[in-house]
């Protein structure tokens, strides 16, 4: 157990789950989009849907999407700041069967036309778990630097990607593969110890059968 587990995150309140975790979810979605967001459609499930105004979850999610961290005093004014920066935020209560009580589905559109959809939950103490990226199952906590690699399910693709990581001197801490159907698009998530150098990301992007590489730095 570390100090974070005992005292919780440094944050703007009132709640680590409804505020700090929500900021991190929004921030992760922004990083996954890889563009300046101009529109955010956010579906709130469970406890998020019932209490988001009172606990400031809407402001926290907007703050993360703007690129703020959980201890940023601007969280309180994030909805106004989003409007000033041209970011439209729409919040809608939704039902997501089997979802964690503090779950949000975030659909982002960027200034350059990119889109991203992230399903994630605030699981307590400011921690998060992202379970879907663009409809593909993942398990991303944001506690480690993580590569999310969308690729065609072809022989040798996983080996090529993991070999590049190893040759770069980066140690893989966790690996997960998700493929809805054999031979179609799949996604691998690679959590690593330490930093991920930019040249590694560029090399992975030019590998055969790799469609997209998303780098999620430790949040």
Features:
219 residues, alpha+beta, 60s Ribosomal Protein L30, Chain: A, 2 domains, six-stranded mixed beta sheet, four-stranded antiparallel beta sheet, globular
Written overview of the protein:
The protein is of the alpha+beta class. It folds into two domains: 3-134, D-3-phosphoglycerate dehydrogenase, domain 3 (60s Ribosomal Protein L30, Chain: A, 2-Layer Sandwich), CATH 3.30.1330; 145-216, ACT domain (Alpha-Beta Plaits), CATH 3.30.70. The protein has seven helices and ten strands. The strands form two sheets. Strands 2-1-3-4-5-6 form a six-stranded mixed β-sheet. A four-stranded antiparallel β-sheet has the order 8-9-7-10, sandwiched between helices. Strand 4 (115-124) and strand 5 (127-133) form a beta hairpin. Helix 2 runs parallel beside helix 4. The longest helix is centred in the first third of the chain and has 18 residues, at 16-33. The two termini are 19 Å apart.
